[in-house]
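Now for our specimen.

. . .
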Amino acid sequence: MFKRPTKKQLLIRRIFFSTVATLSVLIILTVTILFLQGFRLDSGNRIAQGALLQFDSTPNAANVFIDGKDTKVRTAGKQTVVAGVHTVLFKKDRYEDWTRTIDFAAGTLTWLDYARMVPKERSTETVANFKTIVAAKASPDYKFILLQQAAEQPELQLADLRSTEVKLSTLTLPTDLYSQPAAAGVTHSFTLDEWNLGGRYILINHKFNDQVEWLMVDTENVAQSVNVSRLLSVGFKDLHFAGSNGRTLFGLADDNNIRKLDLSSATISRALVSHVDSFNLFDTNTISYVGTDPANNTKRVAGVYRDGDEQPHVLRTVDSLDTVLKIAVGNYFNDNYVAIAEGSKVTILTGSYQTTGNDDMTELKQFATLDLPGAVTQLSFSPKSDYILAQSNTSFATYEIEHTRSASGGLDPTPTAASTPLQWLDVSHVWNKQSGSLVMRDFDNANIYSINTVAGDFDATLSQNGRFFYSVGKSDDGFTLQRVKMILD
């Protein structure tokens, strides 16, 4: 016979079920939050916070393996792993495997989105043939490569790489652009120097007999080109574009002073930095330079000048003119970074630049150091400033700012075929010519591939969409503009 529960029993049941329901919700909520924060059971069945990985590759749709296990994830995708050392492997049909081993810290997000999958079959296709090529210069926006067939001739071949069918056009420098075009007994030499970031203008160094002048060439309208030296009546040792309009530059004059140039108004600024040996320009307004101390010409200095500052800021002084001193600057997620090489040691600083010209470095703190086996011969930041590359002849080291990791490696030239310096291919890869081959590798010296055989010390570049890798090769009767397909159909 059914006995109706008492009010007390009903109250107890309600309290019990409410408690169970509340606890269940709390447990589910806690587990969900822990899961979203990357907590997992490790190999010892203990709860440990993991690391989140975001994957991508070019081309994508590569299968992702972690420590040899198929994650069932394809690029682009994401995966959480227990903190610690893991080996990530991307596999895709008809492409070489891409792999990297990293120590992932708990609670971190790591982007592995820069992998370039390299085809296993890398056949070389000839785009155009030339009797001679003495220079090739690729634009930084991956749109063009400018080819020079004879240094003494004012004629260039512009290859437009923006479509599968490469278009070639001839650029002939107007005779009124450069000095003494028809003077008897005068020898001319034209040297390709620097593209602007927008890939329209290029600086050309023109030597005639024992004189030098600089030409700013507009590749879209050669008639609008400017003889910079003649316009300003000033001789320059070096020039760099500031901005994309091709009309604003910074120049190292023959008197070793850096000045700002405005070609539109034909004006030149006061001396911004003096006693300069060499300089580079970051972005549009930050100059890094190496020179001698204006107050003591037996000391070398490295410093930074920002457009608008009253004075340059000296960041390093060394007592010997024989000490190798190099400097490079970058900006990563709104933080300023400076790399200074003194001999074989690279010091990486971060913070804010001073606005005065003294040696106070209180706003720039040491961030990291790199040690190389010999004096640094090359120092640079990657295009997005997240990696630093330092090279000492055939040895090099890189530093990854976001994850404070360093890596090192070496080039392996043969005794008869030395390697060329490393250059940035894109934001995460470098390339060089090594024993007659075009070699590409990740910034940390992983995933090294010989792409194809190349000729001479010529520039190479990817196309804008990464579909082709362009370079200069040798043929039986001359040279070729050639390419390798990097993204298969």
